[in-house]
Automatic annotation (TrEMBL):
Gene3D superfamilies with a match to the protein in the record: Endonuclease/exonuclease/phosphatase
Domain of life: Bacteria
Endonuclease/exonuclease/phosphatase domain residues: 137-353
Pfam families: Exo_endo_phos
Record field: transmembrane: 45-64, 76-98, 104-123
UniProt keyword list: Membrane, Transmembrane, Transmembrane helix
Keyword Transmembrane recorded: yes
InterPro entries: Endo/exonu/phosph_ase_sf, Endo/exonuclease/phosphatase
UniProt-recorded Gene Ontology molecular function terms: catalytic activity
Official protein name in the record: Endonuclease/exonuclease/phosphatase domain-containing protein
Length: 362
């Protein structure tokens, strides 16, 4: 039987591997042509383009959140829950890996970098040893059904200065009675109060509805003091006088038209900002429920004058509301002229807020 010799092309394919691809004229195609053809198919850079787009939008939202319109309170709402937008990163990463999308994976670098630049500093423990004075602030909630237990828990915290917000007329006597032994000095102005182990002086309400002049200006009308939501006093500490403000700014609520009502809160914040700007003392502390986070644009005037004790000396995000599942830190301790050494969140009471504490040093 006569054996037919194989052609050179077949023999080359057998000896050296598969024969190179050829065009219609039989000419071998260069490798560059095969690479270009691969880009036309569903390759790793073309897969997951929608996921990549979402990643870029998320990154831009984190970077440019202050450019979001605040019409209807949208900007304030976004900034209140801004840290939680970081949860979009692992979700998008899982989708990118499942789709084997190189473009989406690379696009995720933008939101990761933006989130870390905003909140990366809050991930660790920033507390230090020391502290000359311990401060605690708590919105005790008007609907609190256990004011006795709340007062006793706060007294056991060991705070030198204790600020309470949203004190109801019915519960005021209970707090005064239960805290009297641990705190011989106290003042209550409307729905806010301050209890102190050291003497108090120069106490007055702060009108958060109108312009506030320097210390010593005329007080608000008597009929407005019942609903007063801020006060100013001086605590005579062993290290010298300390000006202390206690405030409960207006609530923010979802409105019937789908907006986020912040008008009252913002107006209160502006009045409080003016009061602090007129404060003559070098050492100032602001304690209270501000109904907003320090990322909220409404507090730009406050953060320009004071800084957060928790951001300086706390651990983690320090969320304080709602008590059952905290998602935002709206209870604040802000300082000026003193140094925050430690800041923490206390265990829950009968309130829908968690108490917050800080140790400060001269």
């Amino acid at each position: 039987m006569t054996r037919i010799p194989a052609c050179d092309t077949v023999q080359e394919g057998v000896r050296g591997g598969p024969a190179p691809e050829q065009d219609r004229r039989g000419t071998p195609r260069p490798r560059i042509h095969r690479w270009i053809r691969s880009l036309r198919g569903p390759g790793p850079w073309r897969r997951g383009l929608v996921t990549a787009a979402f990643a870029l939008v998320l990154g831009l939202l984190l970077l440019l959140h202050r450019r979001i319109t605040d019409r209807g309170g949208v900007g304030s709402l976004v900034e209140t829950f801004l840290p939680w937008f970081g949860l979009g990163v692992p979700v998008l990463l899982v989708i990118a890996l499942w789709r084997r999308s190189a473009s989406a994976t690379v696009a995720l670098l933008l939101p990761v970098t933006a989130w870390l630049s905003l909140f990366g500093g809050l991930l660790g423990d920033r507390s230090r040893s020391g502290g000359d004075l311990t401060l605690v602030s708590h919105n005790v909630a008007a609907e609190n059904t256990d004011p006795v237990g709340t007062a006793r828990a706060l007294a056991e915290s060991g705070a030198d200065v204790l600020a309470l917000e949203e004190i109801s007329e019915e519960a005021r006597g209970t707090y005064e009675k239960e805290l009297a032994k641990a705190y011989p000095h106290h003042t209550v102005q409307g729905t806010v109060g301050l209890w102190s182990k050291a003497p108090l002086s120069h106490t007055r309400p702060v009108d958060t509805e109108q312009d506030v002049g320097p210390l010593g200006d005329s007080k608000p009308a008597a009929d407005k003091l019942v609903d007063n939501r801020a006060l100013r006093t001086t605590v005579a500490t062993d290290q010298g006088p300390l000006a202390v403000y206690v405030a409960h700014l207006g609530s923010v609520r979802v409105t019937s038209d789908g907006g986020f009502g912040t008008a009252t809160r913002n107006r209160n914040a502006q009045a409080l900002t003016r009061a602090l700007a007129a404060e003559r003392s070098d050492r100032v502390v602001l304690l209270g429920d501000l109904n907003g986070t320090m990322d909220d644009r409404a507090f730009g005037g406050l953060t320009a004058q004071l800084h957060s004790a928790h951001e300086e000396a706390g651990s983690g995000f320090g969320f304080s509301w709602p008590a059952d599942f905290p998602v935002a830190r709206i209870d604040q301790i802000l300082v000026r002229g003193v140094e925050a050494k430690r800041a923490w969140v206390l265990p829950g009471t009968g309130s829908d807020h968690l108490p917050v504490g800080a140790a400060i040093s001269w």
